[in-house]
Amino acid sequence: xxxxxxxxxxxxxxxxxxxxxxxxxxxxxxxxxxxxxxxxxxxxxxxxxxxxxxxxxxxxxxxxxxxxxxxxxxxxxxxxxxxxxxxxxxxxxxxxxxxxxxxxxxxxxxxxxxxxxxxxxxxxxxxxxxxxxxxxxxxxxxxxxxxxxxxxxxxxxxxxxxxxxxxxxxxxxxxxxxxxxxxxxxx
Length: 187
Prior knowledge:
With 187 residues, this protein is α/β, with parallel strands linked by helices.
């Protein structure tokens, strides 16, 4: 008899590295250009805080994105996102490099993407997540879908989901309220 498929919560409980796409995930997918041709992007501060909370809880973070942008490099540095892959045409290849660099298995990774270019990696990881406004083919293949849209809290939702699944959310919240420390978060 085959084992029952893992639930999204069981999958989230195993994540040691959460990987994010940028356009449509960390941003709303809109691209603004200056007259000089520079790209501008808007990021959600709550999404950024979620990524910081993952780091505090011992969950590593990464970005794999098809576009290359100085803005993304600045945001990744600000959030202390450990692994940044930009200008990537072959996301599965970058994912393989990331696995080699971290020594993790695909099952220990999560990935949040919103469009077809993300599917090949989403189908390899242990926990595949998508913002609510993702392409229907992505939503159909995700283990978990946020209620929020990309760039509007979807990343924070998935971060909170990981923290809850790993029983680290309450300790972080207590510390934020000034009523506790962060013992037991990493591990």
